[in-house]
Amino acid sequence: GENVEQHPSTLSVQEGDSAVIKCTYSDSASNYFPWYKQELGKGPQLIIDIRSNVGEKKDQRIAVTLNKTAKHFSLHITETQPEDSAVYFCAASRETSYDKVIFGPGTSLSVIP
Amino acid sequence: DGGITQSPKYLFRKEGQNVTLSCEQNLNHDAMYWYRQDPGQGLRLIYYSQIVNDFQKGDIAEGYSVSREKKESFPLTVTSAQKNPTAFYLCARRGAQYFGPGTRLTVL
Q1: Which of B31, B43, B100 sits opposite A103 (nearest CB)?
Q2: pLDDT tens across B42-96, in order?
Q3: How far apart are CA B84 and CA B76, in angstroms?
Q4: A31 part of contact set with chain B, CB < 8 Å
Q5: CA-CA distance, A42 to A55, in Å (whole number)?
Q6: Of B29, B59, B56, B30, which is closest to residue B42 (Cα–Cα)?
Q7: Which of A1, A58, A79, B50 gives 20 to 30 Å between its CA and that of B76?
């Protein structure tokens, strides 16, 4: 069935360094790829998304890249800060079918001061 | 919290009891969703509703029930038929774009 893999499962970086989280998806019809940040005890928060008609999108210290041919997409966080520590989830869906959003298992990011 | 209110934040249930989790939204959106989150796993869809008085099963609907009598409300009932109900339950609107704060259910 449809699947989204996410790596690594845990990631520790020094404050100021960059963090990269990678995801792969199996449904070639997927065209919408959101990323979420979840702090402890809270619901996930959409932080950035990308659609299949673009290869890269940036928002301040966060960027996402998409390689449709390889069915890969990645989240890049630059100049990490302690408040970036959280669990990050990637997801994939066909934008017309929000009921078919498939989530990755999550990456626990720790930013060490 | 994405315009969604969930209550209670923590819920404890004895085995064999049904329990209902509340989800309310104030942004007049049609589509509402319930997800389940287990440690180390991604979110899994339980039920969703695109319109009042209509709802569809997601990937893990067994042991759960929902109703959608009003546009702003989409309560989830965890029944005694759910074999492993201890989890974090999240309500969302507009697909998976906006989530509520969640309810943590523990079966004693």
Answers
A1: B43
A2: 899 999 999 999 999 999 999 999 999 999 999 999 999 898 999 999 999 877 7
A3: 15
A4: no
A5: 30
A6: B59
A7: A1
